[in-house]
Amino acid sequence: MMQTSSLMVWLSALWSPWGLLLVGLCIGSFVNVLVRRLPLMMARGWWWEAAGQLHEGQSLSEWSETDEARQRRLDVAKELHDRLQGLPALSLSRPRSHCPGCGHVLAWHENLPVLGWLRLRGRCAACGMAIPGRVPLVETITGLLYCGMGWRFGFEPAALLWGTWAAALLALALIDWDTTWLPDALTLPLLWSGLVAAALGWTLPLSDALWGAVWGYGGLWAVVWVFERVTHQEAMGAGDFKLLAALGAWLGPVALLPLVFTASALGAVVGLVMKSRGTLREGRFVPFGPFLAFAAVVVAYGGLSDWAKGMGG
Predict the structure, then answer these.
(1) What gap in Å lies between CA 186 and CA 172, rounded to an integer?
(2) DSSP string for 262-273
(3) Are 72 and 211 in contact (CB under 8 A)?
(4) Other C-beta atoms within 10 Å of 65: how many?
(5) Statement: residue 306 has pLDDT above 60
(6) pLDDT higher than threshold 60 for residue 61
(7) What are the Cα distances from residue 253, in Å, to 213, 215, 298?
(8) What b/e readout covers 157-169, taking b as 16+ CB neighbours within 10 angstroms?
(9) pTM, to two decimals
(10) Which of 137, 169, 148 has the alpha carbon at shortest distance from 251?
(11) Residue 299 in contact with residue 169, Cβ under 8 Å?
(12) Are 99 and 129 in contact (CB under 8 A)?
């Protein structure tokens, strides 16, 4: 009985305001790792696939390839393979957190969320290279997101669920802003976890989650398809469809309209400001994913859908 009581005390502390803040800060540290490494891992994967395609050459068989061209292709494939093979291992856990300038491996106290950055005064302890201010900012924002979900849904296990959901959206927003990619490794788990959470009765009715996913993907796909046929210009990638499907699975179909409207309005404002300052990237566009993610958090926290009113009970 005493062990059970102690466990309950610890669990209660976990989803208290300070507990959620601490969890969020730690998750924010992982978000920083995810944002830095996942795009690099994706790029490596694509280069490995390219090397394999060049070596096999199956898709080139219809070109009546000459012996000289075939040998050049195999040479390029081998060089690419050797270069990739020579790269150090890269995953979300390897190598350990280190300075990109001198390779100094961070000690545990240097890796503490926010406090480590403050203690180092924003610079590497070994070489003095500046550590971007975005590192503690992301950790702080993630901590505040967890606390915010506690205030919205109550300081109970649901707050951890929604805090993790918001942290995943933050990671997607930052990756999309940096690279214009919305990785399947994040959007698809977000979609399936939304459906599973609904099936377990943790969020909204399963039918709402299912139709939210269907309308999220299909509705945006249809709008973009019409736009591209009329203007003959590419509007956005499939990653945005998958992200909106995932948001529909978590928030339901009722939330999609205010979500897309908020994201579009905010994206238009930011785009106009960047255009006036000449800071638009090549192609003169801004990624839509960050605004979808921001609008989703606003919709969830503000209770702009029917299910959220019931959850806020």
Answers:
(1) 7
(2) HHHHHHHHHHHH
(3) no
(4) 14
(5) no
(6) no
(7) 8, 7, 16
(8) ebbbbbbbbbbbb
(9) 0.89
(10) 169
(11) no
(12) yes
How many residues does the structure list for the chain? 313
Q: Is the N-terminal amide bond of 95 cis, ω within 30° of 0? A: yes
Query: 224 and 236 in contact (C-beta within 8 Å)?
Result: yes
**Which pLDDT score is estimated for 313?**
39
Q: Which of 43-52, 78-87, 271-280 has the lowest mean pLDDT?
A: 271-280
Q: What is the pLDDT of residue 146?
A: 96
Would you list the DSSP string of 91-120? Answer: SSSSSPSB-TTT-PBPPTTTTSTTHHHHHT
138 vs 28: CA distance, rounded Å:
6
| Distance set, CA 120 to CA 33, 100, 104, 205 (Å) | 19, 15, 13, 48
All residues at 6 or more sequence positions from 170 whose CB lies less than 8 Å from its CB, including other chains: 31, 138, 141, 142, 145, 293
Distance CA 185, CA 208 (A): 24
Rg, the chain, Cα only: 23
- In the block, which residue shows the tokens 């702080």? 140
Question: Per-residue pLDDT for 41 more than 90?
Answer: yes
Separation between Cα atoms, residue 141 and residue 21, nearest integer Å? 10
